[in-house]
Amino acid sequence: MSFSNGVREEICTYISDKDKRFACLYGMLLFGRTLSREQICFQTESSIAAEQFGKLFNAVFRQEIKCREHIRKSGAVLYIYEINDTAVTDMVYSKYRFSETERLIDSEIIATNSLGVFTAGVFLACGSVNDPSKEYHMEFTVPEEGLAAQLITLLGDIGVTAKSVIRRGQPVVYIKGSESIEDTLTFIGAQQSTLEIMNVKIFKDVRNRANRRANCDTANIDKVVNAAVRQINDIQLIADTDGLDSLSDELKELAELRLENVDMSLQEIGESLSEPISRSGVNHRFRKIAQIAESIRNRGASGENK
């Protein structure tokens, strides 16, 4: 099941009493495909939303309406309710006080505590939300620009910033950002889906931290390996020219220990010396070896120039 259908299924489970059914159906009708005295048409690709519309219409108006299915070229099923009986459409217009000229949200006919259920109906009619593991994006493809503006205002009242865009000639209200989507889902009654997004965020955060740590560890390993290679090259140069016996006892012990233990860290080398020293002490001695090797290289270069 898609994440959107999971949200739809969740919000349908708590629309049980009279006020909630009334408010939810209001949202579905107002934001449905066609709303006029001549015809009311509700269509969706979600079987969950389609079933809910039929149930709510029967509960509110005591009218059984039939749903027909249309198979699109893509193979997707479109569920369609068409009401052409003007006696029924007049009843709908009268009960919900729909305007004859434009679609408007009339908050006065919805109980204050049912605004979330009304918005749940809007989501069932025209909303969708992406799988949070891929992208944080929620949108409503609304039938008219005036409704888009009102929906943005409604969402703004609960602290959610929504924006609109025209896509294929139709207004789309969209919400970005996990927290705004969480607030919207909670408002429409999809608390379980909200928790799912939070869990995804936690998983992503842990994974990103692990990746950063792994990248950091890899970078540190590369630095250790590169440093060890430079140290071995310096030691080998000294051994091939002046010999390791030319070094002081402490530098000779360090050089031999490094040649025998290529993968040792500075701290491990320091702890393995006959007289253990700190990491910084080991680093200091390697700098002395590097200086001796550099002087040998300079000496060789001077000889070549003569």
Characterization of the model:
By secondary structure, this protein is an alpha+beta fold. The protein contains eleven helices and eight strands. It has helices spanning 3-13, 18-30, 47-61, 86-96, 115-126, 145-157, 178-187, 191-240, 249-260, 266-272, 279-305; strands spanning 34-35, 40-44, 67-71, 77-83, 127-129, 137-141, 163-167, 170-176. It has a four-stranded antiparallel sheet with strand order 1-2-4-3. Helix 2 crosses helix 5 (115-126), helix 8 packs across helix 9 and helix 10 packs across helix 11 (279-305). The longest helix is centred in the last third of the chain and has 50 residues, at 191-240. It is rod-shaped. The termini are far apart. 30% of the residues are buried.
Helix content: 55-70%
Mean pLDDT: 90
Uncertain spans: none
Hey, roughly how much beta strand do the residues contain?
5-15%
The count of helical stretches stands at 11
Structural class: alpha+beta
Taking Cα atoms only, what radius of gyration do you get, to the nearest Å?
36 Å
Oligomer: single chain
Sheet with the most strands, sense and barrel status: 4 strands, antiparallel
* First and last CA, distance: 81 Å
The SSE string, one letter per element, is: HHEEHEEHHEEHEEHHHHH
Strand order, main sheet: write it out. Answer: 1-2-4-3
Q: Describe the global form.
A: rod-shaped
